[in-house]
Write a structure and sequence with these properties.
Elements: H1 3-10, H2 18-21, H3 25-38, E1 44-48, H4 54-61, E2 65-70, H5 73-86, E3 91-94, E4 107-113, H6 124-133, E5 135-147, H7 156-162, E6 167-174, E7 189-197
Parallel strand pairs: 1-2, 1-4, 2-3, 4-5
Antiparallel strand pairs: 5-7, 6-7
């Protein structure tokens, strides 16, 4: 099974994971708090590797203008259905997370959650360079990533080393210790990074 087929097949059960579907109100509220802490207020956001759109909806509820991209059509279909059910005008598209087809400098914020590790065929530095071109000057790249007990993922140090030189790290945060984000205690490395474009 190729990668796209795998993630398409995952779409039907993707939201069953508590931190994916955000169905529990307390957990959903906790993710909302995290995003408000990490992101500058207002602006246009690109949610890269948006999956079924759970974070996109949180951002739209908070007043951001949101676009989302994911290369699995089944994920995008579910994201669109969620947005329609919630009455949100979110622009979802099927596309390559490593090379999103949007105009340069068209977003105030680029957000990626648990997506960098899933792009194994392109160097992390090249992916981050491409994402940075999408940011307006002063815009923010916000990454929520991890290195899991399974051996999958990326260490925070590796992500920081791969950031383009025109980004300045504004904030890093260990988010593994907060079980309210995951609906369980976790012991692996989970972190958030915000870096702003000069």
């Amino acid at each position: 099974m190729n990668t796209r087929a795998f993630w398409n097949s995952e779409a039907t059960t993707f939201d069953d994971a508590a931190d994916h579907g955000l169905r529990d109100p307390a957990l959903r509220a906790r993710w909302g708090e995290l995003l408000r802490r990490l992101l500058p207020s207002g602006g246009r956001v690109l949610d890269i590797g948006c999956g079924t759109g759970s974070l996109s909806l949180l951002l739209a509820e908070a007043g951001y203008a949101v676009s989302g991209v994911d290369f699995a059509p089944a994920m995008v279909e579910r994201a669109r259905a969620k947005a329609a059910a919630g009455g949100f005008d979110i622009q979802f598209a099927v596309g390559d997370a490593a090379d999103p087809q949007f105009a340069a400098e068209s977003f105030d914020i680029v957000l990626g959650r648990h997506i960098l590790w899933a792009i194994p065929d392109v160097p992390t530095s090249a992916v981050l360079e491409r994402w940075t071109t999408l940011l307006r000057p002063g815009g923010s790249l916000v990454l929520i990533e991890g290195f899991w007990h399974t051996g999958a993922g990326l260490r925070q140090s590796a992500v920081l080393d791969a950031l383009p030189p025109n980004l300045t790290v504004i904030h890093t945060e260990d988010i593994a210790a907060d079980p309210r984000l995951w609906d369980e205690a976790v012991t692996d490395e989970r972190y958030a990074v915000r870096a702003d474009k000069s």
